[in-house]
Amino acid sequence: MPRRVLLSLVSILFLSFPLLGAEIEWVKTLNDAKEAASRDGRFIVLDVSADWCPACRELARNVYTDAKFIAFSRSQVFMVVDAYKEREGQKMGQRFHVEVFPTILVLDSEGKEIDRLTGSSSASTLMENLQGIFDNPIPAEQLNERAKTSPDDPELQALAGRRAFDRDDFEKAQRFLTRALELNDSGDKTVVVPLLVDLIEASFKNGDFETSLQTIERLYGVDESFREVEWLILRRARALTALDRHEEAYAALLELMKSQSARIRGEARDLIGDLPKKFRKDIEGLEKLHKKAEESLQKGKFEEARQQIEEILSTAPDDGRAHVQLAQSLFGLQAEAGAGPEAKALLSRGYAELRLGRRLSIDDVGTYLTSLDLTVPFHGVRAKPNDSDACKDYEKAEKEFASEHYKQAVDRYWKVLKKDPDFGRAYLHLGDCYFLNGQVEDSLKFYLQAIQLNRNNAPAYRFAADALGKLGQGQKAWDMLLESVLADPDYPLAWRDLENVRRAGAKGLERHTSVVPLQLLIPPEGDEYESLLASVLPKTVPAWREYLNCKLQWKDEHRDDEPFYFPGAEAEKMCLGRTVEVWDRLKSADRLLKDDDLDFLRQLSIDDQLDAFVFLELFAEEYRPAFEPWKGRNRGRALRYLNDYVFGQAQAVARQGYNSSAVKAFNDGAGVHESDPVMALTLYRKALRQEPYMLPALKNASYLYFRQEKYDEALKCLRRWREVEPDSSQALHMTAFAYIQDEKYSEALPLLQRADELEKDPDERAKIEENIRFCQYKIAE
Fold it and tell me: Which of 413, 425, 426, 419 is nearest to 372 (CA)?
């Protein structure tokens, strides 16, 4: 074919992919930034960072390498400094009173602060927030005055309200946000819903509970799905309680008592405790039963305890603590039964109840500690010394410690270690004594000694992280917290600490313990398994039915004589893999089919991370024997799972568009698009395996296939591109070009004619029309 046709098409392709391989043009000093900004009236975006800060590293890795963000950065002057390692960073941190990292300051061309953002975020969110400041570059001290003098500007009112809220000036925040809502009567949810949420919080914190309640009802009217949001139900219950509307508050709190979150249930229980006595009756009754059951367990009256706990569960089936207590009673009865089928069944059901209790109370420390004591053989952390005299000294040391007599406690713990030098808890508590006495470096030595004695001592890692944090070693503290999770993935206090660290960086962690529906993970006794699918979404039923069928098949092959069918970790992974296979087939038949949980499992399956998910988030004590050798072989994979899926917030990323693995693969490919096109194409294919209809990857892959003259492969991408964008003149033109290479001029011509109708750019239309004439000429020959 004539070379002129090839040149016409390639020019289109190059116009479509600007800035590949580019980087943000950082300036080094504030003086340089002011000089550059003054030349053409730009803003200065100053990131005050720290190399030990995980949120800062995430920003650098995921946001500042994003092609769209790089393009966005060209409009302003960007500067990044380390507040600890660089002299300029130290100056900026002091000058602008930066206390949270990262802090992104927006300055005018003279270096005066206009506004600031804190913490990490996605590229799109950061661009949106920065653009909002650029569009309204009003210094905080001027904003209130501007809002007062422009009462009919809804955007200004909203901005003033949100900034007042950030400064804890809730009265002003409520006033400005109320006015912003009055002016926004269009019904646009994307505008109204965030304003309503902000007003709920501002009015509540301002003590105007009636307005907070009215705004909640208004939010429900705009979007019914908010009726299921637990933090909003809790906020409503608190407002109702403050207004003495106890009946309504109690009804809301009873709903929250069914939550899968122990934290939510705990807060609801505490609020019920603040209500008048008649509302506390049921809760107090349950507490009395719990106390009786605990006494029966301590006395070894396991059958009596079992009956008391089953009475609790008859009225509160989601009480995680009761399920753990039931496990205690079943293990006690199993020990009394000795060997045989009855003992085996009791043990099996005991583990089922233990797992159920832990899942229902995933963040409850009490149920965790109880389950830990029940499974000492698996985790190997002894609760007491082996020597009887050492036990007495240990009990005395604990009493001294509880009374804050740290010197006396230290002496006692040393006596324990002389008689039982391998008792790790004594080293742990020695560390606590020194830590609480302000001798942090000494405390760290004892925590590390406790870890040395037992690599599964999760609290020791966590306490060592506290000491490292106090010593200013933030990265080592973070790494130690991750080790605490790897030591025991069920340890709630380590997860809580990690959440607090991430929250300080304005980004929370994302756990996936409810991805597999609880009723399927731990089904009841009996054979009516189909009824368990009634509560899952209809579109997902075939996939979850496969999960159940796989487990039943496993039970028939391995444990047909037991009433429960809990597979080991490998079998659990197999069942999840089969579930994903069915979901894949469903998605192939309907490309618009989405479900957060099954899409997440699919992502894990493609990334070969299902086993990490099983061990770290579906963790059960019966997996412990398999977990230890797996962890020894796969520590790097386990840490990647935590970083990429838990702290990478994989499901949150997916809700914004594509899943996190696809986004990472695409970004990596875009980074080497020109320098290493072969690697780029490999990465685009990886992205498309995760997200077959990922438009940016389809476009870039099509371009590279064309450059390599692999037109058959290009056509596969182009078909999907045209499914997503049927009116893309570029996709039509490229498809036609591929047909031309195969001399299919009759098939190419209608595509070119359609592209000609759609193309808006005169130069591009001229190229398409040139190719139309060429096809017409070849057809006429």
Answer: 425
